[in-house]
Design a protein that fits this description.
This protein is an alpha+beta fold. It folds into 3 domains: 1-94; 96-126, no CATH class; 133-239. Helices cover 49% and strands 26% of the residues. It has a 4-stranded antiparallel sheet with strand order 1-10-9-8, with no helix packed on it. A 4-stranded antiparallel sheet has the order 2-3-6-7, with no helix packed on it. Strand 2 and strand 3 form a beta hairpin. The N and C termini lie far apart (162 Å).
């Protein structure tokens, strides 16, 4: 009986120790796997940390470069604004305005038309503020319309050296029918003809002003609406140049 009991206890201890070692082996394996996984995780974190640090360094360099570029662009913009302001001020100082602009345009047109620059300079140099002028002379005549082709439809100045005619739009009665006289509220066309057939035209709504030169005399005309169907013209005559 004691031998059988001994064998049973011995087998029990053997099973116990085999089970214990199995559990210990499993636990060791699991601990090894866990440790390996932990180590792999640390290595991955180190790799990610190094990558992030490198990316941060690259982004920091790019940020510094962009800040430098932005500073350079701001400096260039301020320089350009200052240059533009300087050019604008210079343009305001040097660009002719008003009467000077109109005179500059006229001189340019005359030169482009072939007028000799020396001749133009001579004429301008001979022009004086104190002019030799005759007393103004005022005359009137009928303005031609589609229904008015007779009567006194012209006038002359300078003993016939300058002939002035005008055409206008017919006025209308309350019913809308055209009249023979012209409508002073509508544009008129004034033709000024000098000796030799040279003609100058002024067009627009009255009053109008226009100037021509005939031989050695400058005529400055002022046109105003007179009594019905009449145009009043005043001529100032001055020596030219």
């Amino acid at each position: 009986m004691s031998l059988g009991r001994y064998d049973y206890d011995r087998r029990y201890r053997r099973r116990f120790w085999r089970g214990f070692f199995k559990v210990l082996l499993i636990v060791g394996f699991l601990l090894g796997v866990a440790l390996f996984s932990y180590q792999m995780g640390i290595e991955q974190l180190k790799g990610r940390d190094a990558t992030l640090r490198e990316e941060i360094a690259v982004l920091s360099r790019q940020k510094a470069e962009l800040e430098l570029l932005a500073s350079q662009m701001q400096h260039a913009a301020r320089t350009a604004e200052g240059r533009a302001a300087e050019l604008e001020a210079r343009l305001r100082r040097e660009l002719p305005t008003g009467d000077l602009a109109a005179l500059t345009k006229l001189v340019s047109e005359r030169l482009q038309s072939g007028l000799d620059a020396q001749r133009l300079s001579f004429v301008i140099a001979q022009t004086q503020a104190n002019r030799d002028c005759q007393p103004p002379e005022t005359k009137r005549f009928n303005v031609s319309t589609p229904l008015l082709r007779t009567g006194n439809r012209s006038t002359t100045f300078g003993n016939g050296k300058v002939v002035v005619t005008a055409e206008g739009t017919s006025a209308r009665d309350p019913k809308g029918a055209p009249e023979s006289w012209f409508d002073p509220a509508e544009p008129v066309t004034i033709k000024i003809t000098t000796l030799g057939g040279k003609q100058s035209v002024a067009t627009g709504v009255l009053p109008l002003r226009h100037a021509v030169v005939a031989e050695d005399t400058e005529y400055r005309f002022t046109f105003n609406a007179g009594q019905r169907s009449f145009l009043e013209v005043t001529a100032d005559r001055c020596a030219f140049p």
